[in-house]
Design brief:
CATH architecture of one domain: 2-Layer Sandwich
Number of strands: 13
Distance between the termini: 38 Å
CATH topology of one domain: Chloramphenicol Acetyltransferase
CATH class of one domain: Alpha Beta
Radius of gyration: 21 Å
Largest sheet: 8 strands, mixed
CATH superfamily of one domain: Chloramphenicol acetyltransferase-like domain
Structural class: alpha+beta
Helix content: 25-40%
Length: 375
């Protein structure tokens, strides 16, 4: 993490150090948190940080600590996806925080034993790198971000609405994902005039699904993609929840076992490429929605000694040409039983989505983080 990117498959561990910068703002933190427009959050990240930075000589970790006039502090972190997935990033920051409090025993140290579970291979092809494997799911375009808050009451109502004989106890991630999918699919149809089939993907953490479980502090990308292809005439909420659960449950013990060992990387490539083929239907007949959930990762338990976070955010990049179109990141709310969804869509689709009455019946658009804390 103190080294530099060498090429698409390796890091030069030269101990040149992570990027670290301090900034000051001549306004109180409360003034920022009162904003309903969350686009300012990107200013709290290190300048130049991008989601897909893989340039040779690039940093692995970039940190910006911002101090506000009131003494409030924000920590903005960009951690390269070459080595960090969501759980790994949380482990790194949690361990750092525990050491800062001189309570290192309270947080597990980052575990770098991934190569024993998933052995390196000299035959590993360039087209099987993380960025290449996931490129079928990434779409470039001028996109806009929007933060949608679902509180505990709204989620409970969604659970009642979507429960069925196939899924008796839907989870909060399942029901929020299903609602967002339904509303976004309606937006796509309104824009194009055609209801296409939609490929919905969810990144699944392999750590707790393995037997025996991998260390929850394992560094690397212990992820696999669950994919559900939803036909144009199957867009009911209960049906979407059912499709999502079936897709996620396919990533089971048998699959994870097959991914391990010398031939595991080949099996992984095959799994991802099969999903990629489905996402590239001929004549652009398939829409795509990509989810990544950071829920239940304990981000609100991180304490550097100043107390636990008031708000943890997924920094948006507004009106920028980046490969995040049709992507949704799910985060825990401060109270832990709600969800904040960070949605990235093309601007024309976002303008329609924010008018969707079914979405507005359950979600609150760009609510101030301070209002969430009070409620």
């Amino acid at each position: 993490m103190a080294g530099r990117i060498k090429d698409h498959l390796s890091i030069d561990c030269n101990d040149e150090g992570a990027y670290y910068v301090e900034a000051r703002v001549n306004h109180p933190l409360r003034e920022f948190l009162n904003h309903t427009d969350s686009s300012y959050v990107s200013q709290l990240l290190p300048a130049g940080a991008t989601w897909t930075a893989t340039t040779a000589g690039g940093y692995i970790a970039m940190i910006q600590v911002t101090t506000f006039a009131c003494g409030g502090i924000s920590l903005g972190a960009f951690l390269s996806h070459i080595i960090f997935d969501g759980p790994a990033a949380t482990t790194f920051i949690s361990s750092w925080a525990a050491l800062t409090r001189k309570c290192g025993e309270e947080a597990g140290s980052p575990n770098f034993d991934a190569s024993f579970v998933f052995p390196q291979s000299v035959a590993y092809p360039r087209e099987a790198t993380l960025s290449a494997l996931f490129s079928p799911f990434l779409k470039k375009g001028i996109c806009r971000s929007m933060r949608i808050v679902f509180d505990a009451l709204a989620i409970d109502l969604l659970k009642v609405k979507t429960a069925s004989s196939s899924v008796r106890d839907p989870t909060r991630v399942e029901v929020v994902s299903a609602l967002l999918c339904k509303c976004i699919m309606a937006t796509f149809k309104a824009k194009s005039g055609i209801q296409k089939s939609t490929l919905i993907t969810h990144a699944v953490n392999l750590r707790q699904r393995a037997v025996p479980q991998f260390s929850k502090h394992s560094m690397g990308n212990f992820l696999c993609m669950a994919a559900a292809l939803v036909r144009a005439n199957k867009t009911g909420l209960d049906n979407l929840v059912c499709h999502l659960r079936k897709a996620i449950r396919k990533i089971d013990i048998d699959l994870i076992t097959a991914l391990q060992g010398d031939g595991g990387w080949l099996k992984y490539c095959e799994c991802i490429k099969e999903i990629g083929k489905a996402s590239h239907g001929t004549n652009d007949k398939i829409d795509l929605i990509v989810f990544s959930s950071w829920c239940n990762m304990g981000v609100y338990e991180i304490d550097f000694g100043w107390g636990k976070p008031t708000w943890v955010a997924c920094a948006p990049k507004t009106k920028s040409k980046i490969e995040m179109v049709n992507m949704i990141f799910l985060m825990d709310s401060k109270m832990g039983n709600g969800i904040e969804a960070w949605v990235y869509l093309e601007e024309q689709h976002m303008a329609m989505l924010e008018q969707n009455q079914e979405l507005l019946a359950f979600g609150i658009l760009e609510q101030s983080p301070l209002n969430l804390i009070v409620s």
